[in-house]
Amino acid sequence: MSDGDEDPSQPNVVRNSLRSVVSSESSTSSGARRARLLMSKNMAQRSTKARSVFRVASVGEGGDEEQKSTKPKQVFVDANAMKEKIRLAATTKQYTVEEFYHETGRARWLATHHWFEKITLGVIGLNALWIAIDTDNNTAATLLDAEPIFVVVENLFCLYFSFEWTVRLCAFKYKRHGCKDGWFVFDTFLVTTMVFETWVMTIIMLIMGAGGSEDGADGVGASPMGDASIIRMARLLRLSRMARMARLLKAMPELLILIKGIGAATRSVMFTLMLLFVITYIFGIIFRQMTDLTTVGVQYFPSVWHSMHTLLRDGTLMDSTGSVVRALEEENPLYIFVFYLFVLLAALTVMNMLIGVLCEVVSAVASSEKETITVQFVKTKLLEILKQAGVDQDGDNKISKEEFTMMLELPEASRALAEVGVDVLGLVDNIDFIFASDDVLDEDDWEGSQPPLKELTFGEFMDLILQLRGTNTATVKDVV
User: C-alpha 125: how far from its chain's center?
Assistant: First the structure.
């Protein structure tokens, strides 16, 4: 055995030696702490080596780059995988449009004020309701021909949304950064179409002498912009304002969960409907052949595609099942048995399977959304404590052992950590291990009885906090 090779029995030797150290120094807490730290760091180092060796061996055996990326896609949503993505996202810096705003100023203060956001959401909801009222009661082709109440309300909505867009534009430190924010670009399009329809088109029609009678008989009051149907087509642009309701999803997490569930279930629903199509296609061919040259065949199954439509409508969606069953019974009782077999497979099995898939996906999405809300709450709360409570004394945006101890003494920090499922008392017991330096593994390098300490960035700190939750599933890495 060469000097570079490691003895397989060496981990056992290390463990036995550490057990003897712990037993011999059981009366001294510092010795026990040193032993635990040494054992954990040695095993972590060996685990890293083992993973690198395994990775090299896997590449060598494959001999081809394509063999390393043959992991099949999952048909159904994995809640644990979604939570893992959330945990990784919590340790990285999240995008916020406030990063592009001025640091101070009235525009920034107003654009980031929570009441400004709530009022805007309320106006969006009122605008969505007003579109229905305007559609039912406003018969005028243009705003000039509308009743005063419709003219006033349309101008008020246009004025507020223009004001809201202007405030957000003024809040940007560099105006070109507005193109980097998707919501601002989206609002720019909506406000532009609204201003064009409400103000620009009205001004053009006034200049060109429009207004009055809608039909424009004898040329009096005729629209200079062409037929009135063209103007009515322009009014369809108002439907684009309904897209603003997407911003209401921020204030309604339950609705957002359902919409995300539909998006996450797309792949699963697609395969379920594909199975339904195959079953319907097979039975469509069966009924087409069985009922050929019969009365029921001419009425319900004249071709394969007509047979599939009949089975989908009356056998799967259960629209007029009784009439089809009676027609099949008059022709041949055997047809009823085949039809009931299709109902059993399609309506009772596949359709209920589809419901189960949707329930499973929505449950997984709801669990991940709850995880997102909780993690974001803890992250925001801890950041506020670091900045406002003066915990970061040296101002280096890192957390040391002393600063972490100060943080745990604050009731707000303890409650925030408890919200995410972290055992605060367990953190106190393992504080030496958490902040122990990774560079110094030899006990001879320690200064006195304390190991050398390190400082954690906020991302490393959040990752560590989320790993120490009691709700986490134990893995082989945790056991070893």
Answer: 23
